[in-house]
User: Which sequence fits this backbone?
């Protein structure tokens, strides 16, 4: 089975060019069908000896359409360490992000830390209003971590059991740790705040409202190289990975880069400004950076519900926090501009309290991150993005995100699977990849 599997996977290469050039619904169906249905065909040779062929592999091909540009587009490759495999004693469950040991029955869950997807070389077309590719900002700022960052690690984090843990974490705590949220920490310098605010100001006319958020700005990563470099900064990612207890990377759906919530000044006696209501996030982790001076404000604080298993609980998502649960609510205040909080928002119910008074608008920047372990549970909720982002962008972004994860699963099989692996485990790996593709295909095709 191993020999056959490697022959199959050599024919199906989900390469960087495949992930970046875009692919059609037919391609996703083809890949899923090839993994699920193509099997080894054993037969007697001309001299009565067993032989093996690959059924159907020669009949299938994968094609992509590359968008043509008048001049070669720029490339923005992030700098990351090479692919690494996590220790076998700390493999991850396929139903949660919790590291765990091999089960009592000896069953193992695979774990593979994948190099993050690169930023697309070709920009999408304008957000539903332009037939031209999104152009970069004319007066963009050049990101310089020595100037724009002021990283001061938090003195503590909170686990998913909602216990306070010192940071850096003691060695005995790291094993099996899962983050709920961090304590506030400094991330941007004063100059970094000014530079990022200039990017926001230059793009405010693209802001829009949603059902949950009165006014927000999305897609800054496609307009500003400063934003891209900030999100891909290795120092920042190292810090966030240490807090998460696992390697993380900017989320593969790049419309999420530096999502910005824009508030308004509120005078005493005016109706409060709603910032963000009780919710869980549609990506694994977010790093929320405050851009405003809140020292003279009333409200606008982060609140989290210290209760597990709320992500798929419709009561919490529809009703928010009821009075009988208010004793589980924890309020966190930002010390000042440039400070951030890192939260596993996909599993922690949270909100921003209404702003009752504010001399200046409350502005926050939300950078989205994901686990680099492709067998880790994917918290991406596609419907969130197809509702708030242009359809021609969200569908491709989600398809590429899924392709990146499946690519990692295929690499795990071709590079890490050991000889003698039981056929059941091999079948399970291929079926998971096929299931992920089928699910993504159904979502993208609105089935």
Assistant:
């Amino acid at each position: 089975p191993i020999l056959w599997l490697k022959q199959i996977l050599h024919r199906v290469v989900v390469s960087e060019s495949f992930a970046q050039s875009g692919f059609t619904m037919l391609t996703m169906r083809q890949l899923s069908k090839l993994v699920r249905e193509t099997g080894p065909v054993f037969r007697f040779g001309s001299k009565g000896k067993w032989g093996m062929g690959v059924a159907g592999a020669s009949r299938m091909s994968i094609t992509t359409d590359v968008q043509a540009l008048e001049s070669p587009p720029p490339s923005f490759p992030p700098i990351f360490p090479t692919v690494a495999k996590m220790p076998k004693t700390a493999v991850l469950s396929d139903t949660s992000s919790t590291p765990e040991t091999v089960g009592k029955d000896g069953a193992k869950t695979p774990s593979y830390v994948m190099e993050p997807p690169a930023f697309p070389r070709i920009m999408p077309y304008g957000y539903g209003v332009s037939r031209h590719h999104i152009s970069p900002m004319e007066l963009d700022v050049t990101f310089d971590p020595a100037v724009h960052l002021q990283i001061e690690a938090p003195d503590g984090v909170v686990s998913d059991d909602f216990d306070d843990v010192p940071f850096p974490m003691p060695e005995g705590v790291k094993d099996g740790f899962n983050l709920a949220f961090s304590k506030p920490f400094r991330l941007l310098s004063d100059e970094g705040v000014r530079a990022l605010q200039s990017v926001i100001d230059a793009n405010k006319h693209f802001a829009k409202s949603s059902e949950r958020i009165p006014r927000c700005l999305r897609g800054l990563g496609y307009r500003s190289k400063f934003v891209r470099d900030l999100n891909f900064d290795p120092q920042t990612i190292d810090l966030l990975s240490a807090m998460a207890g696992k390697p993380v990377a900017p989320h593969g759906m790049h419309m999420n880069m530096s999502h910005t919530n824009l508030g308004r000044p509120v005078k005493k006696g005016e109706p409060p400004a709603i910032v963000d209501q009780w919710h869980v996030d549609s990506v694994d982790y977010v790093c929320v950076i405050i851009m405003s001076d809140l020292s003279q404000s009333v409200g606008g604080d982060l609140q989290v519900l210290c209760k597990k298993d709320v992500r798929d609980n419709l009561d919490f998502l529809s009703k928010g926090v009821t009075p009988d649960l208010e004793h589980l609510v924890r309020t966190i205040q930002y010390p000042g501009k440039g400070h951030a909080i890192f939260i596993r928002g996909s599993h922690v119910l949270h909100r921003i309290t209404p702003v009752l008074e504010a001399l200046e608008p409350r502005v926050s920047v939300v950078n989205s991150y994901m686990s680099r372990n492709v067998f880790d549970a994917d918290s991406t909720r596609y419907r969130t993005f197809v509702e708030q982002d242009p359809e021609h962008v969200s569908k491709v972004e989600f398809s590429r995100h899924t392709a990146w994860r499946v690519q990692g699963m295929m690499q795990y099989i071709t590079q890490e699977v050991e000889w003698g692996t039981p056929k059941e485990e091999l079948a399970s790996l291929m079926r998971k990849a096929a299931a992920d593709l089928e699910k993504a295909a159904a979502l993208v095709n609105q089935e």
